[in-house]
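Exercise 7b. Backbone tokens:
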């Protein structure tokens, strides 16, 4: 490990990373602190083939550039991109608030681009296996669901439950419900379970029940017009108990 003083332009910022988020008040305090005292905690970089790659300290680096700093103090360690991404996740996760979509992007990059399996990611980041699996599942949701998650219209748990629906049109019909932010997660989970069961994606009988000896052709019917419909176009419908009883 080395402590160096380098030009900000010498530091490469990865395209995918987790970055701490500030409220307006906290950012103003942060900016004033940098202005008065400078960067008291050095920026952390890994050196990869002679290139300094940022691991931790993007907000500090950006404020130093705004303040016109010609050089910044950097702690430099040898490493690779896998270490850059896993260390970035670990450090920002332990500090609190960050965009969940940033975390998902980094995990997806580790899994898809760098061939890291869940066990390796878990060991390096100290996230639970269940959490990593859920985040990777959410990485595959439709763009509309992803946008809602990024805007914090829904949280990660709702995004995961909605993402269990196999078709984008189903996911989008649910997330575009004007009351989606107020619907309890348990209700969404139950609705998705019921939809998947109707589609044959979940067993209607308890686990361990022998499958039928002969395959059967399943037809899916709209509960309104009773017409046969392609299962891709089945949509979850949010109803109160009274309306549910009237329709069904």
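Sequence design result:
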């Amino acid at each position: 490990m080395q402590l160096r003083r380098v030009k900000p332009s010498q530091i490469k910022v990865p395209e995918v990373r987790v970055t701490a988020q500030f409220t307006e008040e906290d950012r103003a305090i942060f900016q004033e602190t940098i202005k008065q005292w400078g960067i008291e905690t050095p920026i952390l970089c890994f050196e990869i083939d002679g290139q300094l790659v940022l691991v931790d300290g993007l907000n500090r680096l950006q404020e130093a550039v705004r303040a016109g700093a010609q050089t910044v103090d950097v702690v430099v360690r040898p490493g690779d991109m896998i270490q850059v991404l896993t260390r970035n996740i670990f450090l920002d996760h332990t500090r609190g608030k960050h965009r969940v979509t940033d975390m998902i992007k980094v995990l997806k990059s580790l899994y898809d681009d760098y061939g890291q399996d869940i066990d390796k990611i878990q060991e390096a980041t100290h996230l639970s296996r269940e959490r990593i699996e859920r985040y990777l599942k959410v990485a595959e949701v439709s763009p509309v669901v992803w946008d809602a998650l990024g805007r914090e219209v829904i949280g990660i748990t709702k995004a995961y439950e909605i993402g269990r629906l196999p078709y984008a049109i189903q996911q989008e019909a649910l997330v575009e419900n004007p009351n989606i932010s107020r619907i309890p997660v348990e209700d969404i989970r139950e609705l998705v379970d019921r939809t998947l069961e109707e589609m044959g994606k979940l067993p209607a009988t308890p686990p361990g029940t022998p499958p039928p000896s002969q395959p059967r052709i399943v037809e899916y019917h709209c509960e309104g017009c009773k017409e046969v419909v392609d299962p891709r176009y089945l949509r979850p419908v949010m109803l109160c108990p009274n309306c549910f009883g009237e329709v069904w």
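Instructor comment: The chain has eleven helices and five strands. The CA atoms of residues 90 and 126 lie 7 Å apart.
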